[in-house]
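Deviation from plan, reported transparently: magnesium ion complex.
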Amino acid sequence: MDRLADIARLMIVSDLDHTMVDHHDSEDLSLLRFNALWESNYRDNSLLVFSTGRSPTLYKELRKEKPMLTPDITIMSVGTEITYGNSMVPDDGWVKILNQKWDRNIVSEETSKFTELSLQSETEQRPHKVSFYVQKDKAQDIMKALSARLEERGLDVKIIYSGGQDLDILPQGAGKGQALAYLLKKFKSDDKLPENTLVCGDSGNDAELFSIPDVHGVMVSNAQEELLQWHAANAKDNPIIIHATERCAAGIIQAIGHFNLGPNTSPRDVTDLSDSKMDNFDPGYEVVKLYLFYERWRRGEVDHSELYLAKLKAVCSGSGIFVHPSGVEQLLRDCVDSLKPCYGDKHGKQFRVWVDQVLPVKISSDSWLVKFKKWEQSGEPLPSI
Ligand code: GLC
Ligand code: MG
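Because the crystal trials were delayed, the predicted structure below was used instead.
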């Protein structure tokens, strides 16, 4: 992980399902609010870590379904797989640690004797994770019996129950908390320990995250009973863990504010986007704002006034250019002009725009090169071919 030359201001380690991603928010508004906050204020000085129970296969599916950012580090399969960067380079050192006292075949053999356990899909069975479904009322007894049985067979495993239905069996040294501890240790040995870390979760497999010393924690308002019970029994006196009153990503934003970890106003919550911070110019912030304006203009949510476009053109330098991935270059001011005929063309549609990996580089005393990915969701079915 060498994207950041400096120490990260904030490292967010967040679960995905029902924490970063709200499956009951069909417009994904809280996720989009978080995205705009992250890209405008944190992307170039902080670290985003996703820590999910999903296997790489299901994680990639979620990324296709939801407007998610690209994390700096991805921890999958309940802390058993750690990868870095865009190209998801695996951490082989972590794999070696997990091989200790672990034998998947013995786990399969012993679990097959429990008829109450039903195996999850093939994609969710991983080298260091065996996963089942089990009914809530049977979970505690099964976990006890199973752990005694596996111990007798010489294994040292961890059994985790999540979401009132999922039972995961992992090596003892695995899990979301251990994976985070491993990362923190690595950062520390490089003298790169983040200034602050915030862990975010909603269910049983997130509990360990809240037991790592010195990290702030937020259990989102919609957290599962099993996590709240764990917290009441193990961590209720820890003042740097809160139970948010807001759901999912909105709860994460709430925690950033509560613990004073940095800016906590998402540009999506700002109605007047025309305030140009020229005295304290921040190119990442400007890019986020530009695309928010573009979304609102096409949705017809701002007045149909050419004044906005004139203001936008005024802040664009005459020589500023936009370089399309195809290589075609266009003057920024011409790009603004091309917005004119699009006003309101997405009115009443689920049209959303978000930017990802906004990374500015200063190339001379008064110019910046900002690279970013821009995504659009049109809310319209794709044309059939
Ligand atoms: C995700 C995984 C599943 C796991 C659950 C709880 O849903 O896909 O395999 O059991 O998280 O950790
Ligand atoms: Mg979750």
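The longest strand covers residues 352-364. We consider this an acceptable substitute for the interim report.
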